[in-house]
Amino acid sequence: MPASPSPLLRWADLALLLVAIVWGTSYGVAKGALAYYPVLGFLAVRFLLTTALLAPVALRGTTAAQRWGALRKGLPLGALLLSIFVCETYGVAHTPASRAAFLISLCVVFTPVAEWALMGQRPSRAVWMCVAVSLCGALLLAGGWQGGWSGGDALMLAAAVLRALMACATARAARHVSPSAAPGAAPVPVLLLTTVQSAVVGLGTLAMGWALLPQGLPPLPTWAAASGFWWATAYLVLGCTVFALVAQNWALKHTSPSRVGLLTGTEPAWGALFAVAWLGESLGPQGWLGGALMVGAALWMARR
């Protein structure tokens, strides 16, 4: 008889489902904000504000060894996160939303493969079954596949691969103890690791904006002229960045990357529900069935 899941595993699964829900809403919210400001500048504002909010709390009571450990682990993870957000944001701008939803959900398939290759942990048959059901649901949600490949499609596919690598890399960083660490040394706090990642994305997109945009970054929109931009930014900073990154980094200490990929892979389904409820978009019977399969597969795996 299989052992009952631990309470921490259940909380980790719940946290990851909440991450998927808030990330699903982020596409519609971000599109509204991008009407006021360029992609790279918007990402810089979002993640630098996140860093400013997290840093005072994250640094309190930490030791020099913990800060060095956070830098050593957080810089490469932050570079991965930077690549993910740049690929996703530009990809959504250059491909239909249905295709973007399908392609980004392929991280559900890539994560068990990456976990097997990078961490030597072979996923169970139940995980592969849930992956197959979730993939079928994503295809139904996307309405099938029509037309050839575009640059936006390639960016979304790259983001899905990077998400799978990110899940494995974060899990390994959260669990790995450096051989050079002193015996009994305190582990790197999750909040401090998240702060370093946010700083890398914020500073990286800021530098890219000034270097790559022909006229550099324009002045920030004012509250009077673009209050919608700042409301959207506040939601994305507090919900989709601070909460989501902290919750995902914490959950990866208590669950496997494959479960993370499966649970957060329901993001397109929640995004579709948000589009119907908030943005007034329509979703046919095929789309509802696809979303139900994705969410059902994730909930079944979480219950197991």
Automatic annotation (TrEMBL):
It is found in: Cell membrane. Keywords: Cell membrane, Membrane, Transmembrane, Transmembrane helix. Residues 11-141, 152-301 form the EamA domain. It holds the Pfam family EamA. SUPFAM superfamilies: Multidrug resistance efflux transporter EmrE. It comes from Acidovorax temperans. GO terms for cellular component: plasma membrane. This is Multidrug DMT transporter permease. It is a multi-pass membrane protein. The chain crosses the membrane at residues 12-30, 36-55, 75-93, 99-119, 126-148, 154-174, 186-208, 228-248, 260-279, 285-302. InterPro entries: Diverse_Substrate_Transporter (IPR051258), EamA_dom (IPR000620), EmrE-like (IPR037185). The lineage of its organism: Bacteria, Pseudomonadati, Pseudomonadota, Betaproteobacteria, Burkholderiales.
